[in-house]
Amino acid sequence: MTSIHIIKASADELQTIRDLGRQTFYETFAPHNTEEQIQQYLAESFAEDKLNRELSNPDSQFFIAWEEENPVGYLKVNTGKAQTELQDDTSLEIERIYVKSSYHGKKIGKLLYGKALETAAELKKEYLWLGVWEENHRAVSFYKKNGFEEFGKHIFRLGGQEQTDLMMKKILH
Asked: Which domain of life does the protein's organism represent (predicted)?
């Protein structure tokens, strides 16, 4: 495998983020949900106008993992009011880390997580937090192995279905 480069995304890469986001979300969650629920979520969450707003929000940052010219994963982090819940000025939310299934096991998620840690340090944040679906055992295990602890739960809506996310955080100092 060639080396992976993590590059901050600009508004010009909206289509790349959209395609990568749709593909990786589908690969991750389609086996566990109805096609109708998945398609509804993809249409809403990866709509061009919504992604445009997210990419232009100064409190959100996207990073794309590239293998040469091929985008293989991405990271979205939020601070301040862009955070989906806590909106604590001392924290950085990891809203999304997704990697194409064909690249699972190749440490790309770890590289993207490293970029989140680096971003939190640059912004002098005290802790990282995220929500992860309780049934996504691979992700839950990854975060626990990297020092995250559960501190609560919240409901995540996928189509008309309610699912439980574990709220996890990692103190940085």
From this structure: Bacteria
